[in-house]
Amino acid sequence: MTNPPLVETRELSVHFGGLKAVNHVNFSVCDGELRCLIGPNGAGKTTFFRLLTGVHAPTSGTVKINGRSIAGLQTHQIAKLGVGIKTQIPSLFDNLSVHENIWLSARRNHGRAAANQIADRVITEEVGLGEYANTEASKLSHGQRQWVELGVVLAQRPKLILLDEPAAGMTGSDMEKTAELIKRINRSSAMIVVEHDMEFIKRIAKTVTVFNRGEVLVESDVDTVLADERVREVYLGKRMGQRHDIGA
Amino acid sequence: MIGSRNYWPIAAAVIAALSAIVVLPAIYDEYSLLQLTIYAILSVLALSLAFIWGYGGILSFGHAVFFGLGAYSYAIGAINFGETTIALLLSMVIPGLFAAALGYFLFYGRISDVYLGAITLTVTLIFFNLASSTSGPEYRVGRVPLGGFNGIPSIPQLNVPGFPDWTLSTTELFALSVATLALVYIGLRLLINSDFGRIVVAIKENEVRAELLGYDARKYKLVTFVIGGAIAGLAGCLFANWGGFTSPAVFALGQSVQIIIWVVVGGVGTLAGPVIGCVLIQWLTNSLASLNTVNNNLIMGGILVVVVLMLPQGLVPTIARLARGRRPVQRLDAATKGLGGASTKSEARA
Amino acid sequence: MDYLIAVGLEVVSGIASLVLISIGLAVVFGMMKVINLAHGEFLMMGGYATITAANAGVNIWVSILLIAPLVVGLIGLIVERFVIRRLYGRVIDTMLATWGLSLLFIGLATTVFGNTTAGISSPLGPVNIGHVGVSAYKFFIVAVALAVIVALYSLFKLSRFGLVARATMQNAAMSSALGVEPPRVYAATFAIGSALAGLAGGVLAPITGVVPSLGAAFVAKAFITVIGGGSTVLVGTLSASGIFATVNQLASFATTPVIGEVALLGSAIILLRLLPHGITGRFFKGRI
Asked: Which residue does chain A place closest to B216, by CA atoms?
């Protein structure tokens, strides 16, 4: 990993009134990496995510993606830097079919025919929703909608994918499938995943960054982080490794 | 499915237009033909709003501005130049340019919903006020006095390009209007089926998602708005030809709400619906005017209220659903999604 | 000097008129996020109620201050019950339906009263300020506008209805969880907004005269004042009225009333572009 980092923040801060939601965060992710952001509620991880996607503007500090500062960029311009974003609540073209949803994503950088091919491949091979290709997105289950949105993000063929709680509201086999999907996507794109379900983190994580009170508490491989005393403390003594939602 | 194309509406439009142009002049006298011409002209106007509202999600409360600008541009151009070809072009270019300026202001300022409604409504009132106050001889463009509230009379008929003496007869104006209607319909249908059209519809469906994919929603909305404005201007040109005069009434609020009623009655999110809505409503208006007993405002207002309450999807989508044996589904609220009107995919093909 | 005072009075009474024209719409928009495009016709009906009552021998002040708001408030209650309530949450549909109502009321008024201007003479004559004569009725308009603002402020700040209304404005789901019924709050709100429109129509009737199409002259002004002010009812309406009416009056003095009107509309467009959520979307947040 000698290349310049794909995402880099320097002294990134955002203050809402007196609240230092994110405070002097230096953070970087390299090509091909899969990074999980965790932390208790209010730790600033979602705010940090929104700074990366340009929803919030920083009070001070910079965000660079692919070496380029995103300050002042519109949402679509950030997307054009090769960033695929999946928000917490699935955001789809509800009245369009699964195929149309994913085609629109592929069409951005490809011609009509190539976009069709990419959409077909994403639907059948990558997210495994072949039988629903012509179903309206609004008619799908919650889990299926999450996967369609992962497919939409995938079809952009982005260098970097930002996922906000991809396993929210999932259990059992749905969560299993989402984890598999994320690992597969990670073969071609770097990913930053905000998640608070520890069960899910354990399945996918390599490196974990723990947020607490707007600052980075620990950043290390998943096992070290899970064994860390301070991390246990910020989760208010709840025992780690058991069932879901330590931070909830 | 993307890739597959459905061409039967286009074929139907061609056949309907050709048969109307051939058959109707043979069976109707000139007066009746003139009555039919206005239906075709106003249907073009209905299509322009059907496109920007139903597919672009942009509900303009002042759509009549573009219609009026088209009528005035044509009138001023035709009287000044004598030959009408440039005037015809002006009647699309000027409303188109104005739509570009207004659209830039609206979309690049991220103004939507209620605010967009307020501004477009205000713009049309400004034009109405200004056009009405130009009665003095000092208000003239070239050698055309704007005429204030009385408007511009004696507008020359369109001539065949290059032949200033060959002006259109009543029958020829009818044929031109019907052909324009068919061409605008076909053009819009092809546009909606194109990749551009799919992206426009996607932006209407979910603007945030489209932007996350890297599409600049502002740009697509602007282009949509300009196309709609230019088509409305063309309708204004034909309207000025039809009546031979134009007045500030083309900018009036009543004109804007009339267009909205056609689209709402016919069905937001379709092209055929607003044309049918326009013909039905105008026919009703004419019939009521000849009866002279019931107030037209009363009926139009009643229709708008009842349709919004009872038939929120409009006639064509509702009938299409009934024909497929499904119950109408409540229209999703447009505004809560930041859209002007929601439509399902199947309706978008109607 | 006298002239300056006269101009000043014109500006102040212009602001007061705009506040009266807009405040009913502002109450409804601020609390229900509903834009009632039949608002102009509510004013028109207030005008007819006043003139009809006055012509039937009712005291002119009673006709203006009581009959007009009562009649139109009642009409508002009916409209809320049969139209607005069925479209809650559908902002665009509500605007379309109320635009339909606007045409419907114009048609009804034309059928009932005919298409001619009905009027009553101003109950107050001119007074002299130095050498310039001004209508004493303008002072009455200013007084009514002030009274309305004070009354609304007290209603929102001091009464239980005001508390519930402010809670509903903030969060409808929350207030219904507290045992308040939003439908009743909304019905009361819409009736109050309508009554205020009726009052404005009654107050303005002696000046403008009343025709069925009167509303068109008011609805756009009220609409942009409310939107320009933002969702904060009192402060928003006051500040937007202040700006727009001043622009209108000064431009009218400098040129013609038509240009004054255009200047008002133009300044509204520029304001909305600069402050897309209205004045109070940017300033005075959290007030009423």
From this structure: A76
